[in-house]
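Trying the structure run again after the queue cleared.
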Amino acid sequence: FFCGVRRTGKLVVLLPGKGERESTAISAEVLAANGYDVVRLFSGIDILNTADLQSGERFTEDEFVAHVRRCRDTLEGRYRDLHILAKYFKQQYGYSRVGIAGVSLGGITAAYLAGRYPEVFQSLVGIEVAGNLARLLMVTKDPGIQEVREELFRKIDATPRVVAQVLERELKTVDPLYVAHNIRPESALFVTNYFDGVLPRQYTRELW
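Done. Tokens:
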């Protein structure tokens, strides 16, 4: 928690990407130096539990559905915890405005929260942010997700098309696209890498 050098009644919640904590370090210091209070979370979370894939056995479509639902539950828990945290700070310290910003998975989380709870988060900055989680999991070049995806296709008794359909159906309600209609464009800023293979720019555009 960083306190600004002069109180402005404004709070920024910063969310890093998956498994790291450095991407928001300088941002927190700059914001605090310019009068904002900042809650900076440390590393993000893995939404894919690879334990199901570590056995040598194949698994069925129904088992895959159950796996994806556990991933969805993990995201829902993360969203719920961050909402409670921001709401607590807003009520406890009387902030007039709360903004949220995130990088990569943190950006996806920030976009969802800004759309799901616009009464709490009045502004949004997403660095490498995107929507359409189901499609992203099928095409991203993130090394960790690629490894899981390849192992999945070796072991599951279902076609890639069925896998994509399951992801789309089960992850719909935790996708930023699901709540994007509540995000006001004038209060949002998205920054993307034109050549990004982890979160390709077309999915940033789709969310925008």
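The beta strands are 10-15, 37-40, 97-103, 123-127, 188-191. Worth checking whether this holds up in the mutant runs.
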